Amino acid sequence: MTRDLLAGLVLIPTVGALVLAFIPGRAERAIKVVALVVSTLVFVHSLGLVRGFQPVPAMQYEVSQDWLPSLGIRYHVGLDGLSLWLVILTTFLTPLSLLASWHSIHARVKAFNIFMLLLEAGMLGVFVALDLFLFYIFWEAMLIPMYFLIGMWGHERRIYAAVKFFLYTMAGSALMLVAFIALYKVSPAHTFDILLLTRYPVDPALQMWLFAAFALAFAIKVPMFPFHTWLPDAHVEAPTAGSVILAGVLLKMGGYGFLRLAFPLFPDAAMAFAPWIAGLAVVGIIYGALVSLVQPNLKKLVAYSSVSRDAVRPAAHLRDRGVRRPQGGDAVVRRPLPLHLPVLAGRAGLQRVRGRVPDHDGLLAHEPPAGGAGLAGRDPGRGLHPVDGPARALRRGHAEREPRAARPQRARAGRDHPPGPAGRVHGRGQPAVHAIHRALGGGADLGHAEPAPAAAGRARHAAGRARGRSGTMTDLDLRPLFPAIVVALTGLAVLLAQAFTPKGARAPAAALSLAGLFGALVAVVVIARGAGRGSVLAQSLAADDFALFFQALILAIGIVAVLLSPSYLRETAMDRGEYYALMLFAIVGMMGLVSALELVAVFVALEIMSVAVYALAGLQRDREESQESALKYFITGSFSSAFLLYGIAVLYGLTGTTSLAGIAAKLHSGAASPAMPGAPASALALVGVGLLLVGFGFKVASVPFHMWAPDAYEGAPTTVTALMAAGVKAAAFGAFLRVFVQALPGLAAQWQPAVAVLALVTMVVGNLAALAQSNLKRMLAYSSVAHAGYLLTALVAAPGVGTAAVLFYLVAYAAVNLGGFGVFAALTRAGREPLSLTDMAGLSARRPLLAAALTVFLVSLTGVPISGGFVGKFYLFSAAVTAGYTHLAVVGMLMSAVSAYYYLRVVVAMYMQEPVGEDGWSRVTPGAGLALALATAVVLILGVYPGPLMDAARAAARSITIL
User: Fold this and answer.
1) Residues of the chain above pLDDT 70, percent
2) Residue 709 scores a pLDDT above 80
């Protein structure tokens, strides 16, 4: 029963938000009532926690169960004396905020209330999470609703304030995630469990770096000087409810993070940083107070006053002694300031609601309740009686002056040592000294990469697989080729149907294509369940778990692409049967590419794919951009194929074989080919590896081999672009992994640093180039380049956990790209595509479901919880840290924060700008709607329940290497 109490705390507002989603938007009063009832129910529920809470030094209402056991992640929540009152504060302020906004929110009432409930769920999750991964999910997830609350219902500069708030807080959290991963790796506990980690402190030297990463994220949220600049803008521009939650709860999270994580996990570093934190606190106190003195805007005054007041909290907590008082009392007495502002609306109009101090003259006489509430809220801000503020200030000052031995020690539940008091020091002379007399009436599997085996063991293992050690492996076994045969025959059937269809009639090309792709997918599933699994065709093509994983992914990509195509082809006058046939032939090449066990087979499959994609890219013959796209793809593809072929020739000349297993064995033994006696084997091998790296670098669009991608993506038909971004990239990375892991494990020490350099440059160049793009397809093209860099960060950890991480991320990335380009294709009408930010303006009002889906995809690309993109990036960067490439993970997280800017521009246009012109976009057809729904579902499911896909990815990775 006690477990259910805490589980319901986060679940109730989440379910309430889902219920609101199904209420018609016109029923505004019903929406407000339901939201208020749900938030009140959460408050009553939280009071039940107080009644059953015991004053004992232990976590209570604790729930701990496996979530992602392979990564050491658990759903672990609980309450102690620190978090209990912050939970009560959150549940108390949320219904008050909804009531305060009852008459002030008139537009998009449904969305407003949904975001309020989701924000409450995120904040509560932060306060009860006892697992670092879970804490980070809630910490980041609450950014989304607050971003929308400020950006959609704020004032004139709301967009600037919302974007600034999001970027500041996300940038601060980026390094914290890397620190989480590093802490897992170096801690003897090898866990994300916060309570266990506090019992196993890490090396003091490493503590300094980890504490710095944690402290930056928490200092921004406090906010401490000089990381405070986001707060005044957010405070001023936010709606009333946003200001209440921002000042009452969100600003407490920074201090809570210091207390819950930074100080207990890194005690030595905390004391070493104490002088710096204290110095910044003193500067913040003085700076915030002085700036508050000259503020004519009441909201900005409160913001700077918060900078002054809240700056003292981290420094005081460093004392880790004295009377521990919850942070909630300060929020309760101070938040009437934002809450009383709606009362002014009827008396002073919008400008006064926005908070000019002179407009509060004589408020107590005209509006006694509002004036009294405001006065009561201000008095504690100066440490004046009769309310709680001065008592807290006296207790804080007493605790800081009292000798350590004389102070009482009160252990927080779940800790062996108590953090410091939570009140603040403030006395007379507090900012806003001019407010009183005006109100009175006057005045103007993560951290453990399994050990890499010896090169000889790898070679024997790979050779054994190629020879067919199991009884099902024979040279004449056609089962590995059967799914590709089904797709190829379907392509031929589509061409024949097109040829024999009477003029003026429409061939059932899309239906035939879907039938063939589904049939091939069924064949893959049957083989994976044991009927041919692991079989090999003529030492060239395999049906191992790795190949089956990629074939299933490629076929799923093909199904979604076909579903998106009919309406787009009609709108662009490109409805021809050869389109589907070419798409099917491209898929055949992709399937062969990921199954090849021999370099010549890799080259042949690559050419089959490339020729078909080239023809698809240029299929819009009346568009110059389409022809340019095809030509550039063909020419750069020819260059990449040449490099690849030269690399194959060098390795063949050196080893006398093109078999991946044979190459691995020869390179390990050091035996040169009779054709090249006396040749410097190691030097020639590196030349061959370098040529292969260039060839695959072109195909995955890594810098500096990416120059074809922006033009090809922009000029190709949008559905073809989706296939290129998802399918071609997946197949290229599949072949990249198989060749380098199976054939070149003995040279990993040479090629891994080169791949690391490519990853670093690709992440930086891709994201920075995307910042300057106004065309949405080019923006996503450079985004695709950047994501190739993210994938390469894990490839440096291959063979090992990095292989599985790449496979998992490719699935999430494919769903996101199919969905993103699918939205553009679904909106296309009469050949006109939404290619600019202006085209997306006001999309949420005209196509709310499409706007919501595109937002999910962009959020996933950014790497924000709860999305498949976040879990995928976590997996990728964990692999990089495990392999010793922590700097790549740091750069990757920082570049993810940079990417948030250009993704947010699209969200701003859709939700925070008015529509331009008439609604000229097409209605979504059932097929396109189904495709987008599937892509959205995959992204969200992988963000919440990624375990099964992780298991499948690890099994696939094991089939090409001994982990």
Assistant:
1) 78
2) yes
3-state secondary structure of 76: strand
Total of domains in the chain: 2
Rounded Cα–Cα distance for residues 36 and 25 (Å): 16
Q: What is the Cα–Cα distance from 67 to 75, expressed in whole angstroms?
A: 6
How would residue 249 be classed by pLDDT, with cut points 50, 70 and 90?
confident
426: domain range? 2-439
Phi, psi of 685 (to 5 degrees): -60, -40
**Mean pLDDT throughout 119-148?**
91
Q: Which residues, other chains included, contact 276 with Cβ-Cβ below 8 Å and sequence gap of 6+?
A: none
Beta bridge partners of 129: 77
Residue 800 sits in the same domain as residue 889: yes
| Residue that is last in its domain, among 439, 471, 491 | 439
The owner of tokens 């999305």 is: 867
Q: Are 481 and 536 found together in one domain?
A: yes
Q: What is the pTM of this model?
A: 0.81
* 446 within some domain: no
pLDDT tens, residue by residue, 152-183: 888 888 888 888 888 888 888 888 888 988 88
Amino acid at 297: N
Q: What is the mean pLDDT of residues 772-786?
A: 93
Does an H or E element contain 542, and which? strand 541-542
Show the tokens assigned to 87. Answer: 């939970």
| Residue listed under structure tokens 């004391």 | 271
Residue with tokens 């003026």: 504
Amino acid type, 428: R
Would you place residue 695 in the very low, low, confident or very high pLDDT band (cuts 50, 70, 90)? very high
CB 782 within 8 A of CB 770: yes
Going by C-alpha positions, the residue among 117, 119, 174 that lies closest to residue 143 is: 119
Contact 535, 508 (CB under 8 A): no
CA pair distance 190, 200, nearest whole angstrom: 10
User: What spatial distance separates the first Cα and last Cα of the chain, rounded to whole Å?
Assistant: 43
**Residue written as token pair 């403030």:** 426
Sign of the dihedral defined by the CA atoms of residues 344, 348, 349, 351, in that order: negative
Q: Are strands 73-79 and 60-68 parallel, antiparallel or unpaired?
A: antiparallel
Contact at 8 Å (CB) between 95 and 40? yes
Q: Is 63 helix (H, G, I), strand (E, B) or coil?
A: strand
DSSP annotation string for 385-427? TTSHHHHHHHHHHHHHHS-GGGS---PPTT-SS----------
What value does the mean pLDDT take over residues 624-629? 86
- Residue-wise pLDDT for 438-471, tens only, equals 443 444 444 444 444 444 444 444 444 444 333 3
Which pLDDT score, from 0 to 100, does residue 921 have?
67
In this predicted structure, the answer to whether residue 769 has a pLDDT above a threshold of 70 is yes
Same domain, 569 and 708: yes
d(CA 394, CA 672): 82
479 and 425 in a common domain:
no
Tally of helices (H runs) and strands (E runs) in the chain: 45, 4
What is residue 594's three-state secondary structure? helix
Position 28, amino acid: E
**Domain assignment of residue 362, yes or no:** yes
Task: Round to whole Å and give the CA distance between 192 and 188.
Answer: 11
Q: How far is the CA of 28 from the CAs of 15, 17, 846, 848, in angstroms?
A: 19, 14, 19, 17
Tell whether 794 and 892 lie within a shared domain.
yes
Q: Is residue 447 domain-resident?
A: no
What is the Cα–Cα distance from 528 to 548, expressed in whole angstroms?
A: 7
pLDDT bin (cut points 50, 70, 90) of residue 874 is: very high
pLDDT value at 618 more than 60: yes
785-807 burial code (b ≥16 CB/10 A, e <16): bbbbbbbbbbbbbbbbbbbbbbb
Q: Phi and psi of 252, rounded to 5°? A: -80, -15
Residue 511 shares a structural domain with residue 418:
no
CB neighbours of 792 closer than 8 A, spacing ≥ 6? 700, 702, 755, 756, 758, 759, 762
| Residue whose C-alpha is closest to residue 815's, from 705, 716, 942, 903 | 942
Residue 694 lies in a domain: yes
